[in-house]
């Protein structure tokens, strides 16, 4: 006889590396969710920028059903039609010539970092191995990617970490220049830092990185795991800046909720990922590729991409209205539907306190560090859901202010 799982089952059966909220959602439709008790929530979290079309979007459900009745998985001993169609679409719509498919953003970044070093060895020798990243950056949870990420807390306690990794200051070109040399093989950067606080790069910074990489024969790697696939109002954020990387990583919104990742690269670099150098058992499986292709084709339209900016403006207007009443935010920032509200000095470090209050009011939101409230909703969230979600957020903030 089956029993209904409870939140206490998490503490009993699961490793304690997460601390989920006390509710358990069981059903979703669009930008709304319902928990085990049937209570409704508006979703401003989007699965951490993953649910690009909300929950159970018919385009994705249909792709899942159709492909699910044909072919799920083969392994990379064979190729399959959905993977080839997805790769072709990504190449046609971006700077890239080649695509490597995997199952997550961390895997895509791991592949990008390995490719950057392999390319340097192939063309310049083993001494060209330094990778420059940025303080407060986040690139995944593998040992390599947490080491490249600029948040030491994620790599502490895991023994010796990979060497040859340097960290500069985000949006500070001179700090990069001081570290660059002929031994630099790559610079990895998020066009907008996500976990680091929803901080967009300046155009001058990214253009300067491109110039420094060209001067030192280093590769420029854009981590667009969180900013890509319409999240910033263009298919990828690099288009907003007019700066083209050599390698780009993508995941999250790419699968619309299904685990999919991709690494895109120019041809001369991709050649270094030769037969046998890297792989992924599930990467490019037919089921995931079909769903990602459906998401990509739906998002890559003027209606959706232009709608992202319109919704951004609505979010900003609502947040500014709330702030005029309550004074809880110092700055509201971000691009497209990746929005951060930095807490004011009086509420320093209290962004996390908003989340359980918001849940009680029927709203799901996120944080980006202890001091930034983060929102990454569906790219097609209805305007009515934005308005109602903001009303619920304001009630949560009123409770925060009252408790101060």
TrEMBL record:
Q: What is its main location?
A: cytoplasm
Family matches, as CDD domains: OAT_like
Positions annotated to bind pyridoxal 5'-phosphate: 138, 223-226, 281
* Recorded metabolic or biological pathway in which this protein acts: Amino-acid biosynthesis; L-arginine biosynthesis; N(2)-acetyl-L-ornithine from L-glutamate: step 4/4
Q: Which UniProt keywords apply?
A: Amino-acid biosynthesis, Aminotransferase, Arginine biosynthesis, Cytoplasm, Pyridoxal phosphate, Transferase
Q: Which GO terms describe its cellular component?
A: cytoplasm
Q: Where in the cell is it found?
A: Cytoplasm
Q: Give the Enzyme Commission number.
A: 2.6.1.11
GO BP annotations, alphabetical order: L-arginine biosynthetic process
Matching entries from PROSITE patterns are given as:
AA_TRANSFER_CLASS_3 (PS00600)
- Enumerate the catalysed reactions: N(2)-acetyl-L-ornithine + 2-oxoglutarate = N-acetyl-L-glutamate 5-semialdehyde + L-glutamate
Which GO molecular function terms does the record list? identical protein binding; N2-acetyl-L-ornithine:2-oxoglutarate 5-aminotransferase activity; pyridoxal phosphate binding
PTM-bearing positions, type N6-(pyridoxal phosphate)lysine: 252
Textual note on the cofactor: Binds 1 pyridoxal phosphate per subunit.
Its cofactor is: pyridoxal 5'-phosphate
Amino-acid positions noted as binding N(2)-acetyl-L-ornithine in the UniProt annotation, renumbered to this chain:
141, 280
* Subunit relationships: Homodimer.
Name the PANTHER family for this protein: AMINOTRANSFERASE CLASS III, SUCCINYLORNITHINE TRANSAMINASE
Q: Which family does it belong to?
A: Belongs to the class-III pyridoxal-phosphate-dependent aminotransferase family. ArgD subfamily.
Miscellaneous comment: May also have succinyldiaminopimelate aminotransferase activity, thus carrying out the corresponding step in lysine biosynthesis.
Q: What is this protein called?
A: Acetylornithine aminotransferase
Q: Gene symbol?
A: argD
């Amino acid at each position: 006889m089956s029993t209904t799982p409870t939140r206490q089952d998490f503490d009993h059966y699961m490793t304690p590396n997460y601390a989920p909220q006390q509710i358990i959602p069981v059903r979703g439709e669009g930008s709304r969710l319902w928990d085990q008790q049937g209570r409704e929530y508006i979703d401003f979290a989007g699965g951490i920028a993953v649910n690009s079309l909300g929950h159970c979007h018919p385009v994705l459900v249909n792709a899942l059903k159709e492909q699910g009745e044909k072919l799920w998985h083969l392994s990379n001993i064979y190729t399959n039609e959905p993977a080839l169609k997805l790769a072709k679409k990504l190449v046609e719509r971006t700077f890239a010539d080649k695509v490597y498919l995997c199952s997550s953003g961390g895997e895509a970044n791991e592949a990008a970092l390995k490719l950057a070093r392999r390319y340097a060895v192939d063309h310049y020798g083993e001494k060209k191995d330094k990778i420059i990243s940025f303080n407060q950056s986040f690139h995944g949870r593998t040992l390599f990617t947490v080491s490249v990420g600029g948040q030491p807390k994620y790599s502490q306690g895991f023994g010796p970490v990979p060497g040859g990794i340097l960290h500069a200051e985000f949006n500070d070109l001179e700090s990069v220049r001081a570290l660059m040399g002929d031994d630099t093989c790559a610079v990895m950067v998020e066009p907008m830092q996500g976990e680091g606080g929803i901080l967009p790069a300046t155009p001058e910074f990214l253009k300067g990185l491109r110039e420094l990489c060209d001067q030192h024969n280093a590769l420029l790697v854009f981590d667009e795991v969180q900013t890509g696939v319409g999240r910033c109002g263009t298919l990828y954020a690099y288009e907003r800046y007019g700066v083209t990387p050599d390698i780009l990583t993508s995941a999250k919104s790419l699968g619309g909720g299904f685990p999919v990742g991709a690494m895109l690269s120019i041809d001369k670099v991709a050649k270094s990922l030769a037969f046998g150098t890297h792989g992924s058992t599930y990467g490019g499986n037919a089921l995931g590729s079909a769903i990602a292709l459906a998401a990509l084709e739906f998002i890559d339209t003027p209606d959706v991409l232009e709608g992202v900016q319109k919704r951004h403006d609505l979010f900003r207007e609502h947040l500014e209205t709330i702030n005029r009443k309550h004074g809880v935010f110092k700055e509201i920032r971000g691009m497209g539907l990746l929005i951060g509200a930095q807490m004011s000095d009086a509420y320093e470090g209290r962004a996390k306190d908003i989340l359980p209050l918001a849940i009680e009011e029927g709203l799901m939101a996120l944080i980006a560090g202890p001091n930034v409230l983060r929102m990454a909703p569906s790219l097609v969230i209805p305007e009515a859901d934005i308005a109602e979600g903001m009303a619920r957020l304001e009630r949560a903030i009123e409770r925060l202010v009252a408790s101060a």
